Amino acid sequence: MSHSTQIDSKHAWDGGQSPFRVSYGKMMMWFFLVSDALTFGGLLVSYGFIRHKYVDVWPKAENVFTHFPFVEQHLPLAYVGLMTFILIMSSVTMVLAVEAGHRNDKKKVIIWMFWTIVGGATFVLSQAWEWYHFIVGTETGALRHVWSEELHTYVEQTVYGANMTVNEYGVPQFANYFFFITGFHGFHVFSGVIINLVIFLNVLHGTYERRGHYEMIEKVGLYWHFVDLVWVFVFTFFYLL
Amino acid sequence: MSEFHDDYPSYEHMAHHSEEEGKGKRKTLWRVFWYMLAITIFELVIGSMAPAQGWSGTFGLKVLFIGLTIVKAGFIVMAFMHLGHEVTFMKWAILAPYIIFISYGIFIILDEGVYSGDPQNRTTVDPILIKQQQDLKAGHGHHAAASDAHGEGHAEHAEEAHH
Description:
The complex is a heterodimer of chains A (241) and B (163). Chain A is mostly helical and 241 residues long. Helices cover 64% and strands 6% of the residues of chain A. Chain A contains 7 helices and 2 strands. A two-stranded antiparallel sheet of chain A has the order 1-2. In chain A, helix 1 packs antiparallel against helix 5, helix 4 runs antiparallel to helix 5 and helix 5 runs antiparallel to helix 7. Chain A is elongated. The termini of chain A are far apart. Chain B has 163 residues and is an all-alpha fold. Chain B is elongated and about 70 Å long.
């Protein structure tokens, strides 16, 4: 804390200090997140493009995502609301771990990191459940023209759930984008849980206590919040609009 | 201890704070959480009321949802990721490239996406699906639409369309 917290903009680029006033590791994590955000941005822009192209045959989320565990009734959006809550909650526990790290409070870091990992794992499992219902579909299904390899023509057939070529909800692109974007995001959450777990073990081991600071918690925290940030957008564009 | 053992300032320790300061920070973080929860619940309530109220797909609803999403994103980036606490250089090095990129993306969606949606610009969509969606908009049930589309003449029509 001996160094001044303010930066003199006239001398910021003169050398001997970071003009960004952050450590190398943290800045690189930010730059990685910008590049990852560009990837997700690209995917969502592509999704928006195709959705505007097939606007008349794009299904409404409230007709697709209607399931809730152990409940028979149709509850549109309820489950994804719960998933969103879990992820925001785990973002809060993560930032509380970062805050505890700033006070070198090892015990609190352990507690909050633990709950972050629990929240993340719950989210991944929820997503698996959501995918399962999306793929299996409804009992009634929907009629579609499906390409027949034997007849070399399109035949009318009742389709249940979704795969990469046809689905009962709307145009094939709807399921393709759902699988790709929520899958890509889900894989980020999965990686995040693994990274958090590694860092959690390091905390237990006392690595950061010996190092004198818990900046590593802040760096993995940045990644974790980014995952939450992406979900906020996926939630809006896939489920609300 | 600095990462490079040079005479750079030790940035890793700069965010350190006392027990007392921590209390205030935690309070702020929880407040941000409650704001975000309230926004999400509000979105879900509006979202589930929309079909019955006839708000689905309206311009106002889209603007509302996207606006609230940006507010939530702002909370995450500025409060949880502490970008609000970084120096101005850092803030803009992160935000500026992204804002430029996404502005172009929005243009592509709204201009090119709509243009390519013109029926003469797009590949053929399964006519059964088009019929189902039209019936759905006209207020028939979701799955009633499936059997409605099973009319005579549809098969030939589809064949024509697919070739």
